[in-house]
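Fold this sequence, please.
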Amino acid sequence: MCPVLSIISGTHGIECNMNDTLSQSKSIDKSIFDKVIEREHTGSLKWDKYAGKDVLPMWVADMDFAIAEPIHKALVERLAHPIFGYTKQSDAFKAAICDHLKKEYNWAIDADWLVFIPGVVTGLAVSCRAFCEDNDKVMVNPPIYHHFYDSHEGKRQSLTKVPLHKVDERWTYDFERMKAACGKDLSMIMMCTPHNPTGTVFTREELAQVGEMCAQNNMTIISDEIHCDLVIDGKSQHVPTAVACPEQADRIVTLMSASKTWNLAGLNASFAVISNPELREKFTQAAQSIVAPTPPLAMVATEAALTQGGPWRKALLEYLLDNYKIIEEELESIPGLKLEPLQATYLAWIDATELGLKNTAEYFEQHGVGLSSGEQFGQPHYVRLNFACPASVLRDGLSRIRNAVASL
């Protein structure tokens, strides 16, 4: 079995003034993320997948960290009220989103542009239903998050896959192939920025090229930016696609959420930013009767994250970079594995081609570590490792990987 993990109850030992905002710099010691929290038998998708097995889960993208204390406190205060009925998005909730986008990305949006959805994946599916006609084609750029392959309506639309390519060891768009793939039936592109799984933070210039191509071919742009607040390399800067090419804003739907950054995935609160009223109406109509409204706890948690979670996020980014450096150091001495350079996310993209395994993820699972298979992203000889966990857990996982390779 996996090592027994200590249980943390009550508060998480984080002192945080409820008046803190992202613009303030109250310091939080990143060592808070060293604490190991028991997640087995909690209904965790990540952990209960391997219930009863000696397999350390490092696959699906949620973090093994306690939420920020301001979020925890806000939820406890809301739980004191015993009714959880249908919930209207408050003006304060919308203002928190608008203020965050302005402060972080100098993106001034109108609260009326916001459409609330349970998750970014829902936004991808709604977009295909809203903006694509029968027999339309949708462009995606493998390797990419697997829901990009199955969000379209299979009987109505088809995918045009134009792979990313490497330039100086960095994954980016192959613009010549993308332009060559455009045609009258290619009506939309679904893009992921920052990119999952490669961790690329696309530049303003790269995004502007995508915008220009789409303008020339009358294509709608769906931009999944759920990892925007998780740039960890200390050098790169996320630029929203709508900011990079403002002249194309009327063809852009931006999908965002606080869920990845502040570990709120189970609360189901995401949003679309759609400046074009015609697109916004189509999106809203396509979601009608099939997309649930924002749950009250999700709204409370997201508002607290965006208005008071800045210091926690700062400490998190520092800790994630430290963890990535641990992976770099360890994999340098494990033959057959190559760690791809990473600018954003907490998802390491590892090339295991040289191992020559038929099923790479399955092999590592048999040796006690559960990784995401590269096959679901479009590259079967890769694996994806979630390193948003205490460093001690990460080192355990890397030790299992080392032993697995040594067993070949």
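Confidence is low (pLDDT under 50) at residues 1-24. The longest strand covers residues 186-192.
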